[in-house]
Amino acid sequence: MIRFYPFFFAALLSLSSYGKAPNPFLSSQAHSFESCKPIAENSVWLFSGSNLNSFEFRPDSWEIEKDGSVVCRMETIKDGKGKERIRGMGYLWTKDEFGDFSLSLEYKLSEGANSGIFYRTDKDNPVQGGLEIQLMDNEGFQKKAKKVLPPQKLNASFYDGAAPKGDFSKPLGQWNQAELTCIGPKVSFFLNGKEAFSINLNDWQEAGKNPDGSTNKFKTALKDLPRTGRIGFQNHGQVVWYRNINIKEL
How far apart are CA 118 and CA 91, in angstroms? Predict the structure, then answer.
């Protein structure tokens, strides 16, 4: 019978690494072992856990956690009636613009969260000047809002344009793996290894109208929106975390 001694092999592995340069993928600040994956060839880290140099944002609105994730912060304000309310403090925008690219990242939602990943977006007009992937705790948000949302506004949707093919999200509090690819008019989004949607922007021929005849918020036909812009992570009033944000231009 062959016996294995895990402590021996651990020691051997440690010795074999002695004197070598540290592996950036094993940085306790930047990555957890479970989420660490080699980045694709010719891709770059937008955020690996150490700094936010690739982004611009309002001071104190986004912070790096000890686990190497970046989290949005809230602020308390008083409305016109003097009632205190909690609101988000703005987007986390890339400094650069991107056109054709593959973006991979992980995200985690708090209970009732409603956020989004914006892309090919005019940061000064994100609602009308760009595209969004909805990130949402479907059950928690709808319960809190006391309303039922249409499928094209649920988690992993092409926001207000196309419903996801299914609910592929992990249980609340767990990390989700997301990958967005944009090539010309074609946009696809995978969540936890499953295709949530794959669309062609040229199918959106009219302002305010989706290919299936349903209405949307856009005052411009999506086929006519710019094919390049910023990538932004929304701070919308509920806590959401991101980590391991990597992009490859195509």
Answer: 9
Predicted local confidence at residue 34, as pLDDT: 39
Are 117 and 180 spatial neighbours (Cβ–Cβ below 8 Å)?
yes
Contact 179, 104 (CB under 8 A): yes
**CA distances (Å), origin 64, targets 34, 150, 242:** 19, 34, 10
* Selection from 228, 213, 237 nearest residue 123 by Cα: 228
Q: What are 14's two structure tokens?
A: 């440690």
**Going by C-beta distance under 8 Å and a sequence separation of 6 or more, which residues neighbour residue 240?**
71, 72, 107, 108, 109, 110, 113, 115, 135, 233, 234
Dihedrals phi, psi of 119, to nearest 5 degrees: -150, 155
23-249: what CATH class? mainly beta
Structure confidence by residue, pLDDT tens digits, 58-72 = 888 899 999 999 998
The domain spans of the chain are 23-249
Query: What is the C-alpha separation between 224 and 207, in angstroms, rounded?
Result: 9
pTM beyond 0.70: the answer is yes
212 pLDDT more than 80: yes
Tell me the C-alpha distance between 138 and 114, whole Å.
Answer: 8
Is residue 149 over pLDDT 90? yes
